[in-house]
User: Fold this.
Amino acid sequence: MIKLKMMAGGLLAAFAVVAIGATGAGRAAAASTTPRTAASAPGVGDTIRLDGDQDGERLAVTLTKVIDPAHENDGLDIAPSGERLVATQFRIENLGPAVYDDSPDNSVQLIDKQGQSYQPGIEAVRGGQLFPGDVRIAAGESRLGLVVFEVPDKAVVASVQFVPDSGFASATGTWTVSAGSSNDRPRDVVAAYYDAINNRDYATAWSLGGKNLGGTYDQFVAGFADTAHDDVTIDTANGAVVHIRLEATQNDGSIRSYQGTYTVRDGVIVSAHVVRR
Assistant:
């Protein structure tokens, strides 16, 4: 059982319907807020604190998930013959006093078990949105985004590295990618969707699920106005079906309770059945 505290709102408006369609993703459910030491081999979902080379640059960087293989978003960004797409999703939180201004794509490398490293591409894939070319993160804020790679079909992903300041900083964060962690697991997708909502990253929430809840993007965003936060419990995941319970605290202090299921396929929520208790 996984319990997460999340922000919500527009999602709750859709919960009034017994059956709703959805598509969603975001942070892996096992994401850690406490950095591990190098000896404990950080993996997918773990956070590493990294200092940049500029004064006051302090980051908390989380490899939230690895999607392997990743599927093109529009049928146009297809990997060349003999290769596949692999997507890594990072959350970058600025712990320092100054604005962190960087191009995250330049900070990330993927490494296979043969020691071969790969540079990011520009393909758009399902499961999240790419970081824009340049990202400005104010003190105390965070950004979530994908970095996508083209790798040979037979390559086995071993680790992912993040080096601040477009790869020029002295600090290096390395995450080990185990055989099971590279799968976009259904429970991780559901947790990721809520994480995007929690961080008010509505564009990501929309692309990962909100667009299938019904209504327009503006209606989706407006629906979050009255909810202060959610306590979401992921009870079980049976194949593609994830069972959740939700305690939604409203701005007036009242609490609404929900329960239901999400069905996840190819790294996105394709349907939901959530009702009020």
Notes: The two ends are 19 Å apart (CA to CA). The chain has four helices and 15 strands. Residues 34 and 47 are 6 Å apart (CA to CA). The longest helix spans residues 186-198.
